[in-house]
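fold-stage: in
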Amino acid sequence: GGKPKTVGQVFKEQVGLLMDLINSTNPHWIRCVKPHPAKKPLMFDGLTTMKQLASSGVLGTVKIRKAGYPIRMNYKSFKVRYKVIVGDPTAEPKAVAEQAFKMLGFDKTKGQLGVTIVFLKTEGYVALESAKKEKLKVFALRMLTTAHMHIARKVVACQKRVSYVVLIQQFLRNKPSEVEWRRRQYKLVEADILEATRHLLNGVKQEEAERAAVVKQEDEEYQLIMTEMAETMKEVIAEWHRTKPQRDAAARQRLDEEEEEARGVQDSEELAAWEQLLNAARASAEEAEDLQYEREEREQWERENYERLEAERLAKLEEARQTAEREAELLEIERLRKIALAAWNEHHKHDSQRRSARLQESRRREEANQTRAVDAACSRTLKITERRQIANQRLAYPKATFDPRGRTPPCPSTSTTLKTPVPQAVGVPHLSPRISSPAPPFPPASPTSPRSPARSVAFSAVGSLSPDFPHANAMEMKKTRLAQARLTPQTNSSLDMVARLKALKDGCKDGRLIISPKISLKDPRNPENPNNPYWVPPTDQHIIMPDGTAVAADDLSLHEDEGPAGRSGRRRRRGPCSPGPQSLMPPPSFDAK
């Protein structure tokens, strides 16, 4: 009894059901392509098909798809599909993909690995499929070889079984014929065998009868022999009882003789044994005395040998101790030499640094003085040049005449003089004409000091005025003086020393003069210098430094790894240097000749 539905309600419900169905599915667009315009079966027109694909956008879609990564799959599917390439079924899916990319040498042009998906281009997909086919081909070949091997084995086993069956059948077929053949052979020789058997049995019976007759005869003969032996034994026993007393008496007499003879032999043997024992005792006593003498001699030799070995051992120990002491002394000397060399090297280093600092300071002062002198000379040169310019300008104008009307007569050469440029030194600025003070002569510049372009120009300008300034060529004068000094040495030169030595020789009576000059500490020939191979450390453990001071070796060894700041606090003893052993290295002597 409800109200019937209208057409609109039914249409609305059907549309709602249709939309639900559409929303629950995934749409797929299908493009229909006509293979040819003739509408006939089994025909295909390539140009028409390509035009339809191009106009419908399929080729563009394919091109866009190929430009990107058209083939995509997750890591799990990739492992299931291509794990045969890697050969490790237990690896993780992402590890399988990374190993496959590495084995095939993929780059971004063939594929990339995403977070959860593997992106492949067509070239990469084809390469993966080819590698997969190669691997599967190997596995297939292996499976085929295994299958062929099993089939061959089964065939061989079947062939062997067939051969065995044939052999058994042959045996079974041959057995009855062999039995029949043997039976027939037996039938052929049966009569001969029976005849031989009867003959053999008759021979055996006859032999047994003959053997029984022989045994019976032997028994009779044995009984006869035994009877005769019993009678003979009775006779022998009776004879033995009859002759027994004579035999006993003879045996007793023979026994007494043998006993007497044996007693005599025993007495003689005992006497010989006693004599031998006495001789052995005497020999053993003598041998004991010899052994005692040999033992005493051996003990004395062993005692002397022990004393000699002990003396040698003590001598070796003493020699080793002396050697160790000498080595320790040499090591100590070498240690002190190293310490002294290090201290001397440090002292030389500080001296060289101080000398270089003083030399640099002196050079700096000399350069400053020369710079000031050059500046003063330049100023004086500029003043002289300006005074000359002013004088030339004044000479260009005539002297003015007095005119009571207050007019100055024109000079005919004024225009020409004004048009002529005033000569000036190059690089010299124009100064006021009021400066008229005289300038001192120009001093020479140092050959080592650098000159600026202005100073060079000023010096060239002053050099042109050398007749008025006699000190402009001081450099040439200095060179000349040095050359003369080289040609005529001073009184402290080696030639003058040789001349003095000759004069002293002439004043001596024996005509020979030995001079022992004082050797400096820095000279390697001085025994106090550690560079001397015959250097011996002083007994007070104070090392002589190049400046004559004595420094304790312990302080040097304590500050051996420190810098100059650590060595500044060393205790030094100022005083006369302790002379070293002059016998190690004699002072040099000079012949007055």
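fold-stage: in (second)
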Amino acid sequence: MATGANQLIGTQSLSNDVDVAIIGNGPSAIALSFLLSGYRPYWNGTRHPNQFLASKLPDTHSQSLLDQDLEFLSEGLTGRSNNPISLLFDHLLQPNADLGLNTPPAIEWRYHKELAIDHVVLGRGCVGGSWNDMPSDLQSLSYAQWLQLPDMPVSDYISEMSKEETAALERGQCGVIAQYYQHYVKRKGLHGRFVCGAEVTHVRRLEDASATDGQMASLRPFLPHCVSPVASCCTPSPLEHKTFMQLFGSDCSSAMANDCPSLNGFSPHRVPSSTISEEPCLCMSSSSSDGSLSSGPVLPGNYSSRSMSPSSLEDKPVGDEADNGRCTGRPRLASDEHLWSLSGTRRCRPFHFCAKHLVLAVGTSDEPRRLNVPGEDLDILSYGCPTPEKLRSIAPSVDAMRPVVVVGCGLTAADTVILALQYGLPVVHVFARAVADTSLVLNRMPPSVYPEYVRVSKLMQAQAALVRPGESVVFNNEEPYVSLPFHHVLSLAPGVCTLQDAKHQREVSIPCSYVFVAAGSRPNLSFLSHSGQDLLFSPSTEFQCRTNPLVVDPVSFESKQVRGLYAMGPLVGDNFVRFAIGASLGIGQALASKLRR
């Protein structure tokens, strides 16, 4: 129990508390970790195409944007985000993006070692979040350029990996984008901050900012020894490696090396560039057999000659009580700070540590929306877009008399239909809306950019069928696809899916071999009190990215209900990477200001 927090961190050692804990390890969390690691954005002196913003920038040339009035800079900006700071960051990183132009950024990045903030990033899966769960050959919805992170163009990574020139405005493959995020964390030296496979199960705030002796006494058995967390970017000390081996055993060291890159000694500032390409990816080996993405090559070289890289940092001496894994020091908190207690598991082992500030960076794909019908727990049903391996495994049991059923009418449902048809599987597409509904996203996709989604939209309209009770679904000879608008699932039984025809008010049972439910998803905030419902704009209704997000300050992204709690990405309405990373600017400024005081 004495080294419980090390069971979370592996070779990364925390002091008795960290300044910032980030839950979630997708693109928005990566961008925030980049800023918290000491990187600061500066206006690079170029003339910005937005005249209103350009008139304000000349006065900011000598100071980091984190030292500027972000609210003033963001005033008057418009775009596809309701958060002004997200719009500001987007305008600076990708000027004229909405015009389809690949204009160079208006900011440059400089590294300040002394401004780095102690933080840890916790993720249930691999670095990149839900991007690792998507079929690797599926095309991204956004242009690849709009998915990139600060100071490392995704086009450079794709070109280096494929050895071919890549068009600036071109959709990327989801597998390549996931590998780009993993590579980014390594290349920028952030990997020591990331902990994969960590399931946070309970978060609570210690109300007294100074933390009582009793509260700290209850936490001490879980706290690790006092080694500087910043040193985790470098090769682990013998004591750290010994602790890891004691916790996980020698048989786990190889597998864990993929989760904690500091175990294999990776450091872009210590390892020659010629050896970097041989390193495994952050979280998984190239021999994954469960359909997850294999690691791509890690590229040598620096993507920005104007960026300053962090130098190697030396380990601080181990504290007096390192042998028993305890820290007796109490957290030093400002009067406006609170101590957060985080608990959870990693590889079936518990962890428990404290943080002064908490950032929620989870996406909206944690929990699929269930149908809540009888038979939903049968093994003939799964949620989300299936992997190619899944489709191949069920293919032998699928035929025209036992088709697959796809439930939903969004983009994930369309992806499922596309993949199923690619594998020659007959599809019955069930959804509750009208095929001509103009609010359907599939009916609003430009054909030149999204031809595959337009094809599904046309199929939904052209091959809508009417199935009467007792009749079977009949497929035409051209495409084994039938859509059933105005239908929803009533119940499931082995080999049978019972539907409600809302238009004709009758039940219809159709034979099926498998059911794919793509009816949306929502974030999992069960580790918070009341599952975070009290943080929403309307606490009595379900979370919705656009209409019912978490209520935060428009500049700092700090919750208006709970101080010391921040949120970013889809939780605050920014569902696209291009805007989701913008909150890192506001949160980074707020945390730097508070911790500096």
